Structure formats: structure tokens, C-alpha cells
Amino acid sequence: MKAEGITAGYGDTDILHDVHLEVNDGEIVSLIGPNGAGKSTLMKAVFGLIHPRQGSIRFRDKEIAGRSPYDIVKEGMCYVPQVANVFVQLTAEENLEMGGYLLDERLLPERKERVYELFPKLRERRHQRVGKMSGGERQMVAIGSALMLEPELLLLDEPSAGLSPKLVDEIFDNIHHINETGLAVLMVEQNARKSLAMATRGYVLASGQNRVDGTGQALLDDPEVGRLYLGG
Ligand SMILES: Nc1ncnc2c1ncn2[C@@H]1O[C@H](COP(=O)(O)OP(=O)(O)OP(=O)(O)O)[C@@H](O)[C@H]1O
């Protein structure tokens, strides 16, 4: 996915100004920056939830800027929002089935099996209502539901939000493992150091503009990035 010259926002207000972002095959890319920088807005623009006023977003050799999320999902991109990303009244397994709503029903057992292989905890708790699950398990259900469609690129908006440090590590391990299966990941994270440590590359966004980008390690080693965006 390659986004260039993106200007986008809400109503008449532009939040993003001429922003660029690229996720190559198999990469984990971390998008960091202060609150209100426009990280979630950029992710929404990539997934078609808001339409850029200007700019291009190419995915698998097609222009997707301005297309609907429904179309973009069919191209092989899935998005896990930060909140309201599961059906709390349904069981874990029913959530996975909802995630696979675009699929031929015959494919569901095999796809669920793959998700359970990635998240053995979910197999154990597959008949449990998601509303009764912990934050970490809910996040697994949300990610697992997106994986049902076997996307090539997975967008995660703050997957570690609200989780205890131990669960943050667990979710990050899971993301790493999912990436090793060949899936590219773009994530927005408040846990900037941890996400950069795992990322192939990272982007710092502030006030709706690109500030710095580079390998995850280069950003971690950059004293100015450390001081301004990683809390010293
Ligand atoms: N639906 C919306 N309508 C109008 N303005 C919005 C909407 N969503 C976000 N904004 C505004 O857009 C700006 C960027 O918000 P965004 O959520 O993209 O930032 P962020 O970098 O993801 O921040 P955070 O880390 O706090 O989630 C903020 O000023 C926010 O108030």
C-alpha cells in the first residue's frame, strides 16, 4: 500500500496535510505521534472510511482512494478499529463467523481452524460470550475476526489500548506471529517504543504532517524522536 499526498479530514476541516505512508509486502509498520496527530484519521483514509480530498492510495496495483471499505476489504485489506470491534452479545466463534461474512460458508471451518491455531486461547473459549471476556481476549477475537478473510494487509488501531503490560506483550507477540505468516501489518500505537521495536519501519506523524520516518530501530535510536515523541 502506498499513500501519497493525502489531504483529508472531517467536514470542511483538514486534519491530514500532504501525508505519505507506505507498507510493503510482509512489513510491520508502526504509526506513532502525539494525541490528535491524525494517526487514526490516516488509517481511516487508507481503509475508505473517510475520503481524501487530495492524494493517491495504491493497493495491489489499484487506486483505492475514495473507494468504500466494502470494496477495499475485497481487495485484501482488513481494519480493526480501536473500539466497538467485537459483537459482545455473540460468542467468540460467532464473532469469527461474522468476520467471515463475505466467505463461502464451506470455507468457514478451515478459516476458523487457522485462527484457533494462532490463538489457542480462543479455541478454549470459543463458546463464551465475548462480553464476558477480558480485554486481551476481546482483542484476539477482534483480530481473529479480521483474519477470517485472510487479508494481505491488516490495519490495527491501537491494539494494545487499555491492556495491562503483560497483555500488551502478549498481543504484540501475537501480532509478530501473525506477521510471520506473511501478512503485512500497519498499526497505530501509543506504546510507541514497543511497537517500534517490533516494526520493520515507522512513521512519526504530528499535527497532521509527516515528521520522521525510517526503520523501527533508526527511530528508536534517533535522540530527537526519543525526546519529542517517546518520552525521553
Ligand atoms: N469524527 C470526527 N469528526 C471531527 N473531528 C474528528 C473526528 N475524529 C477525529 N477528529 C479530530 O481529528 C484530529 C485527529 O484525530 P485522530 O483520532 O486521527 O488522532 P490520533 O493521532 O489518532 O490521536 P489519538 O492518539 O488521540 O487517538 C483531532 O483533532 C480530532 O479531534
UniProtKB/TrEMBL annotation:
Alphabetical keyword list: Amino-acid transport, ATP-binding, Nucleotide-binding, Transport
Keyword flag ATP-binding: yes
Similarity field: Belongs to the ABC transporter superfamily.
InterPro entries to which the protein is assigned, alphabetical: AAA+_ATPase, ABC_transporter-like_ATP-bd, ABC_transporter-like_CS, BCAA_Transport_ATP-bd_LivF, P-loop_NTPase
Name this protein carries in UniProt: ABC transporter domain-containing protein
Native source species: Litchfieldella anticariensis (strain DSM 16096 / CECT 5854 / CIP 108499 / LMG 22089 / FP35) (Halomonas anticariensis)
Chain coiled-coil ranges: none
GO biological process: L-amino acid transport
